[in-house]
Amino acid sequence: MKMFPSIFATAAFLLAAATAHASSLPTYGARLEGFDYPHPVRTYAFTSQAQPLEMAYLDIAPATPNGRTVVLLHGKNFCAATWEAAIAALVDAGYRVVVPDQIGFCKSSKPPGYQYSFGQLAANTHALLASLGIERAVIVGHSMGGMLAARYALQYPAATERLVLVNPIGLEDWKAEGVPWRSVDAWHAREQKTSFDSIRDYQRTVYYGGEWKPAYERWVRMLGGMYAGEGREVVAWSQALTSDMVFSQPVVHELPQIAVPTTLFIGQKDRTAIGKDLASPEVAQRIGDYPVLGKRAAAAIPGATLVEFAELGHSPQVEDPARFNGALLDALQ
Predict the structure, then answer these.
(1) What is the number of other CB atoms lying within 10 angstroms of the CB of residue 231?
(2) pLDDT digit string, tens, across residues 289-318
């Protein structure tokens, strides 16, 4: 009987700790209202697919311009703010830096009835740059943004000064590799289960080789806060639609057609592959092998340069900003 008070006290303590933890987690709006970006957020209003949309973006001018512009394209589980350290390094080096949130993501509109395609997102980005008077720029894309950047370079080669791909996904055709197709409804059901813990577990396992640093937590809270907020259904539906786009529109088959100078930055610990959870053990083991995929992509893109980061994973710009920024500036020069 003497054990009961201690058991009750322990249970009460654990419940209080869990409640305190839950209350400390942020909640953001469907357009990431409440999460602050490192620079003022601007809005590009335009019409696409017969509906008015707003594209949020950052446009940072250097104190001493070198006359060149760099466009940074975020990944699917990232936002413009994730480029914070790269923005600072590029601006210090004299580059004008433009960082959009794509339609369907972060602080931009999330239309429920939008036909998402990389061609459409590239066209939206090109229209944004035209509205800013930018005719030619370096296009840098990370993760899903790498797929978009490749599509942009294919679609607008004259407007692409240089292409930089940072651990891009889509370096393999997952469906052709044996990953089963999944409906938008199934993607949606999966997205509805997303939480702070599921985001963190996925990123630790797939992005960072099982390792975790406190600095990564900010980006988990950024993403998780949208799923935890009142706009969670809007966010989950947009993410389902864009997941289908990513799976269904590989760019890997067109890499040999890229006709602009290209640099690939590949963290070797990355194991990202869309739909791996549905794949057979044999297929799941084979796909997402970035040491192999990086070399294959560099060989496919005419004249491409490959930079490998042996101890880094999916997001080298987050894991080791100083090293990544130094390599990026070297590539641009």
Answers:
(1) 19
(2) 999 999 999 999 999 999 999 999 999 999
Residue that the structure tokens 């620079």 belong to: 39
Structure tokens at 161: 């000064």
Percent of the chain surpassing pLDDT 90:
91
Helix, strand or coil for residue 34?
coil
Q: How many CB atoms lie within 10 A of CB 264?
A: 24
Both tokens of 128, joined, read 């944004």
Q: Contact, 168 vs 147, CB < 8 A?
A: yes
Environment class of residue 267 by beta-carbon count within 10 Å: exposed (0-12), middle (13-18) or buried (19+)? buried
Q: Report the C-alpha gap between 199 and 76 in whole angstroms.
A: 12
| Domain boundaries 37-179+250-332, corresponding CATH code | 3.40.50.1820
Distance (Å, rounded) from C-alpha 245 to C-alpha 241?
7
Where do the H-state alpha helices sit in 229-277?
Answer: 232-248
Q: Measure CA 124 to chain center.
A: 17
Contact between 309 and 265 (Cβ < 8 Å): yes
- What the block records as the tokens of 79 is 């936002």
Q: What is the pLDDT of residues 91-116, one digit of tens each?
A: 999 999 999 999 999 999 999 999 99
Domain ranges of the chain: 37-179+250-332
Least confident of 11-15, 25-29, 246-250: 11-15
In three-state secondary structure terms, 70 is strand
